[in-house]
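Recall the central idea of this unit: under ordinary conditions, the amino acid sequence of a chain determines the structure it adopts. In this exercise we apply that idea directly, starting from the sequence alone.
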Amino acid sequence: MKNLVVKETIYDAAVIGAGPAGASLAYFLSDLNIKTVLIERKKMPDTPVRCAELVPKAFTSLFKDKIVGINNEINFMETYIEGKLINTIKSPAFILDRNIFINSLIREFIKKGGTFLNSSVFINAGYFKYDSKEYGSGQTDINLNTQLAGKSSSDPSTEQYCKVWLISIKQNERIVKLKSKILMGADGPVSTVIKVMNLSAQNSGKLLKNDFHNYCFLAGFQENLAKQKGYENNTKIFFYPYLNHGYGWLFPKKDSLNIGIAVSIDSVKKDGIKNIYSKFKNELIKKKIINGREKQNNCISGLVPVCGKRQVISKNNIILIGDAAGLCNPITGAGNFNAAASAKVVSEFIDKALKSGNYTILMQINEEFKDYFGRSLDHAREKRIILEKNWLKNDFNDLIKKTWISFKDYWCA
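Accordingly, the structure predicted from this sequence is:
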């Protein structure tokens, strides 16, 4: 095959995706001296930043070094329903410049000997089989569609062979193949690595394919506006009936404001995301929360995953983290903390598996994630189901109080 490059190096770990989950995992693995390759499809990771950039203060405790990229400190969250301030709660948080934060992690990863491949699109992966006694003999590229079906005499999990992933990536016009003992999917909610795991694109096979986006995502739109004087340094959350199944937000940075909405896919198909956002922004101007003369620095749109945690996180030496694992909160849409926390947990399991040579340890991640993330994410998913079933059917004020995190009723069963 023309333009085919096969690298002989065998990595301990290959991480697909250099967002908050993947960059954090690469950073943690480099601290453990684990030979890692970080593969990112974009030239510049995390650009544009498709995130409101808010993280809880506990986020910083995940990293041993002082993190780079904290833009602003927040102490309180205000919640508004139909334009009226309903409550203000203490909510210690930071707002990041997330691309600065992620780039700092990647720099540290490279400094400690990690391999970073940008502009590299993950295509597929299959088992690479080689004789453990004499490297090079019996080399076979096992077909992906059959190698997950079960053990056989040619399965690389049999004793005489070492199990290694042969990973195909595309760089410009050439195909590069890399070898790695463990494959990590940190490539977002619509993950390509999930296909290698032979899992369906959603948590349950009951969903029709055409319903996947409607069920699992909200549509998001956000502006970053140049900040003028007179803004309170609190986060603000807004609920209006026309922000179907979602909400609006204002998160103040030092010199700018992140203002955005997340709404149902159906409402976007009907009314258009920019039209819905314009209506919301006009409400903020009318309420004098912003003055309407702020200059736009940039705007972004994207999907906000709200489907909840996947049941299978680790399988066949493949591990999912961050949004690929379904760790974005189904009510708030927040995912940065869980992305980094999942990376921290997984790095420790990988270290144990590599040191012991026992890769079945990785299967314990499924139960660990259930214990670590399951309760809060399952609760949030239950609240989302209530929210979507009852939107505009009952008292709107009461519904929001039962399904938003700043109200005590949210925390009730």
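Residues 4-64+100-204+308-382 form a domain with the FAD/NAD(P)-binding domain fold (CATH 3.50.50.60).
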